[in-house]
Amino acid sequence: MRSNTYASQNPFQRERDTLGKTIKKFREKKSMTQEDLADEASINVSYLAKIENGYVNTTVRYLIKIARGLKIQVKELFEF
To answer: What is the CATH number of the domain that holds 61?
Structure first.
């Protein structure tokens, strides 16, 4: 369980967690490590880990980069 911080009080925490799990699912389905995806998406691996774990509100820009790195459409990240 998360500590009593902004992250745990965020009204969109459930969606952040689900989005992160979806990204991780696609990544693992393609047998990619976080490092592999970070390289493909040109993003920092620690930031990717934070997205996958629901710790940050990310931007559309990063979601596009992640989708391109996974070679999927952005909308697939939101089919949950």
So the answer is: 1.10.260.40
